[in-house]
Design a protein that fits this description.
10 helices, elongated, mainly alpha, MetI-like fold
Length: 259
């Protein structure tokens, strides 16, 4: 990993942690209309990002929205990896016919767009943040499965792994001390890629209104909420888009390997 990638990696984790703080603390209540007499006010010393059209501190809305976006993306990433890893485990250790059925199913699955999965989920579940998390995690399972499969096969058949196995290393030792240290950098790179995709897709689906609550503070939803105010106060639209783009750029620049 280059020096700049390391810097951007620290910046990415710092941005994510700072965003998550917004789930627990914001200068003002992001849901209360405490400043209706100051609606559409520009940035000031008391309100760094101004006041939105409903009289709420926009900086607090953005901070809570960033936290919700980051938390939802991390949950989608975790669920995605769990499902993909489980499928890989079954494919590698299950009956022989599964080694054909699962890759075939993944090949069909990859053609299904996340938006379609989200719409289907709405038939069975109420529109909510949790529904979007499930939809995005399922939509990216083919990508995670294929990349995890490539990484596993590549490392599992490496000469140093075979040599360690011949010397009598047990399965637990082989996984913990031989495979994992070499898989970890590539897994982290893959996780960053899927995290960026999850952030973008979650915000996109929220912008389309599939998150249910139209007032839910999430970057894509905030962008949609203020779309009508584009010409009256463009910064109400520019700030959530800028924060979202910055987060995606940091994740992209911190990746140690291209996929």
């Amino acid at each position: 990993m280059s020096r700049f990638s390391t810097i951007f990696e620290y910046a990415t984790w710092g941005a994510l942690c700072l965003s998550l703080v917004g789930l627990f603390y914001t200068p003002y209540n992001p849901m209360e209309q405490d400043f209706r007499n100051l609606a559409f006010s520009s940035a000031s010393f008391s309100h760094w990002f101004g006041i939105d059209g409903l009289g709420r501190d926009f900086g607090s809305r953005l901070w809570r929205g960033s936290g919700n976006t980051a938390a939802m993306a991390l949950m989608a990433l975790s669920l995605n990896f769990i499902i993909a890893s489980f499928l890989l485990f079954i494919e590698q250790s299950g009956p022989r016919f599964l080694r054909r059925v699962i890759p075939l199913g993944i090949g069909i699955w990859v053609a299904v767009p996340v938006l379609f999965i989200g719409l289907v989920m709405m038939v069975f579940l109420k529109p909510s943040a949790g529904t979007l998390i499930i939809a995005v995690s399922l939509g990216n399972v083919p990508l995670a499965f294929r990349q995890l499969r490539i990484l596993w096969i590549e490392q599992r058949n490496a000469l140093y792994v075979l040599a360690t196995e011949i010397l009598g290393a047990g399965r637990r030792h082989l996984l913990a001390y031989t495979l994992w240290p070499n898989l970890r950098p590539d897994l982290m790179g893959l996780a960053k890629l899927i995290l960026a995709i999850c952030v973008l897709e979650l915000s996109g689906l929220a912008f389309l209104g599939l998150i249910g609550d139209p007032d839910f503070p999430e970057l894509g939803a905030i962008l949609r909420q203020n779309q009508a105010y584009l010409f009256r106060n463009p910064m109400l639209v520019a700030w959530p888009g800028l924060i979202l783009s910055t987060l995606l750029l940091l994740v992209h620049l911190s990746k140690s390997r291209s996929y």
